[in-house]
Amino acid sequence: MVDKFIISTMRSQMYDHCYENYKGLTKNPKWLLMRKISRFQAGRIMMKYLSRSSGLSHQSYDQNNSFFNQIDLDEAVTQLNEVGFYLGLQLPKRLVEEIVEFAKNTVCYGNRKSQLGFYYDQKRKAQTQSEKEIKVACYFNTAQLCPAIAKLQNDSQLLAIAARYLEKEPIHQGNQLWWSFAGESSDWERRQNAQMFHYDLDDYKFLKFFFYLTDVDNTSGPHICVRASHKHKKLSHVLLRKREEDKDIIDYYGKDNIVTICGKAGFGFVEDPLCFHKGLTPTHKDRLLLQIEFATTDYGMQNDNRDNSTLQVLN
Question: How many CB atoms neighbour CB 93 within 10 A?
């Protein structure tokens, strides 16, 4: 007998595939075309060639006007190119405190649903009232509501790294701020919440900055990245993009290339999300994470902007 989870997973993958095509064809065909082409290295190279005339300008970024201590730009870009990530970022304590205060005093939305709004310290009440298990909760309109995040997305050193890596003037695609709540999660829940290995297709070339806003160790949801997997993938991973089991990734890339990223609140890193990656499910402590994304094109699909009239708070 075929395992029920396998059947459920296959149905979910088919739904995701159909929904992506529907959303792209009805709302954003340019985005859908990018999703089809960018998974192939040849497609990314072709688009880089076709867009070469609009390459990096001579704009310079005053790296003294930054929240960060001086970052070795050459080293950061070299690491991104070679292994797919760079771990040398650290937010100042005052900025961490400002964003955490915002998160604890602003409504977040359970399971990324606009009708499941609640304050962080009311999560248990929200679960009871909604009769839903809440594993993650995100914030909307962060740049408009949190001055610290708005300033951070314009930080000169982050922009300099993005410009050098993208070989174009970086375009801000969006921010994401979310909690991953501690507890047990089923395979289905891990799949839904990006806690299984996957890679992103947000542009032909793009990168994401991640910042831990709570202390993160092996029990509180560390980010895991597969070294150099942005440069080569197994053909089946390209043709059939889906959530991958740990065994399949380890068998192909090797256990030594699976990098678990831990750090204290304020620790940050930048990643090319074409690398296989995932967030480990927190088991003992909630994790708060900020993501800031830059690309060569903004398709309007990666931001956290929402019409306030669509957001609902549980009573």
Answer: 10
Give the tens place of pLDDT for each residue, 154-206: 999 999 999 999 999 999 999 999 999 999 888 888 888 888 999 999 999 99
All structural domains of the chain with their residue ranges: 59-310
Look over the chain and give the mean of its residue pLDDT values, rounded to a whole number.
91
Model-level pTM? 0.93
- Spell out the CATH class of 59-310: mainly beta
pLDDT tens per residue, range 207-248:
999 999 999 999 999 999 999 999 999 999 999 888 999 999
